[in-house]
Amino acid sequence: xxxxxxSGPLLLGIDTGGTYTDAVLFREGEGVVAKAKSLxxxxxxxxxxxxxxxxxxxxxAAPTSAIGLVSLSTTxxxxxxxxxxxxxxxxxxxxxxPEDLTRGGLVEALGNDPVVFLPGGHDVHxxxxxxxxxxxxxxxxxxxxxxxxxxxAGYFAxxxxxxxxxxxxxxxxxxxxxxxxxxxxxxxxxxxRRALTTLLNARLVSIIDRLVGSCEGFLAAxxxxxxxxxxxxxxxxxxxAEARLRPIETILSGPAASLVGAHFLTGLDQAVVSDIGxxxxxxxxxxxxxxxxxxxxxxxxxxxTMVEAVALRTYGLGGDSEVHIDDxxxxxxxxxxxxxxxxxxxxxxxxxxxxxxxxxxxxxxxxAGRHDGRFAVRTGVPDVMAQGLQPPEQAxxxxxxxxxxxxxxxxxxxxxRAVLDRLVAxxxxxxxxxxxxxxxxxxxxxxxxxxxAARLGLELAARRKDGAGREIAASPEDLAQKIVSRLTxxxxxxxxxxxxxEDGAExxxxxxxxxxxxxxxxxxxIARFSVALDRPLxxxxxxxxxxxxxxxxxxxxxxxxxxxxxxxxxxxAVVGQVxxxxxxxxxxxxxxxxxxxxxxxxxxVIGETEALTIARERAITxxxxxxxxxxxxxxxxxxxxxxxxxxxxxxxxxxxxRITAVAVGRPRIAVFQAV
Length: 675
What we know:
The protein is α/β, with parallel strands linked by helices. The chain is about 35% helix and about 25% strand. A hairpin with a 2-residue loop joins β12 and β13. The radius of gyration is 26 Å and the shape is globular.
């Protein structure tokens, strides 16, 4: 394709997923000009980005000077939370007590990460309890060498962030490590859940920093000087600099971009959208052409955050999902996910002779090995990610190299399986094994990787015996078809679960409901069960054409798979807008005196009218400033107000007012000057 005289600048959309990095060149009024894919290279993300962007530039023959905007969406943050990955972070809680860890899912999210409690914090009006940082000073020498970031959460910090700021500044002075404060992420009350959100943000800092840095480095090397944006979890865009500070806002970035892309590519206002990637399947509902936002905050990896994001469900189900074979019953059962494995067909692309020779040797063995067809290999992430490993983890990690090693040789004791799982969860090690992607290679539906390795792995697995002593599959192809059928069924259950939740019937679990099972299998009977969607099912993702016609048929829905379904995320990344929201809360601690909190230091005012006027002006100014920092050009502001002032025994009682200003605008786009 030759580059023609432009009618406007090109927009470059990049989506970095768990398996592939996609790139599209897009022009408003024209649509997708060119698209390309490259494998995501987790050890060095710039390699995958370079592969996709170079390919799309070559296809279009466009000069880099024609690019007016670069926008990035990613599933890396979502995948990290689903898979339990991320850097080790220390949580500093100001004004909280240990019992608060039992609220908001904090104790489960913390795991083995350290937590330090400091006296201090504020009340609902922002009045302080004195801060004592002695415990922090004592803990810092040990913490600085074992964590990669810090999270700071203060009691009622949204009403007065002074203590969080003091703690943040002291940590930076002592450790020079990234620090996230809870007031920077949310203006909502609910200390433990705000602390949870801050902890997750701290864990994601290194992941998103690497991604943004890799992308910026590549763009600079190619001479692309256009502004760079990142898709937020609600589908809006923020500047790359802001994304580095608030990486938690990029959870559900990829799914949000896919929803924006799905609406753009299909024109459908009412639809269920299901996007299957390598690691996850994301399901959401389009209503009136817009994705609904999660009122209580996004749920990812079992954690309910305070991040405003699209109301969707993320499931650990994708093309690279782990295949579990339960052969203890009279008939073997298959389940998929939630963990991602490196498909054998993909691992053989880089380590073909090693993988193939080990698989063939295992097939020739007189007795089946406990871990046949499974291997471990280092991911190649920077050494800093390995900080804080315990001695058993260090010992096992030292035996894993950049070349795959068979788990039969690696695991000599049962206890080492849990140790290996922890290394995988930290993102230090890949497990290699059969996946749905391997099944598609064996069946001839995909051919981009090594189908011979996939077939050998499936042949090994098919030889396993069930409780009745029969092989679990007649051939590699038979097992591959069973895996594809299982993914179709689990995908249908995922779509139904999301729709039930949207309908307020979340108590119905499609995975265990006998009625749903009979409906999906279309079991005949005197009492017939059926299930159907009231709107089309949009299937997105590279493998959507393989799976989603069958999924839609199982759900009694129309299947819609747009022509650019494989790069919908990248399309959505460049058609979005910047959206900055700022809320000022006004309270009254005593008759006639009002406190305004939010967007900086709190302000004390005499008189309700004066307080509300100042709050409006402050919210508008802060929203416009945030929109500008987020990368918007001209922005339009709308203001909404919530006033809680009930009549009590004939007298009006002011309780609280919330003034919210929302600034919306398109990102700044560099103008292309034709030569």
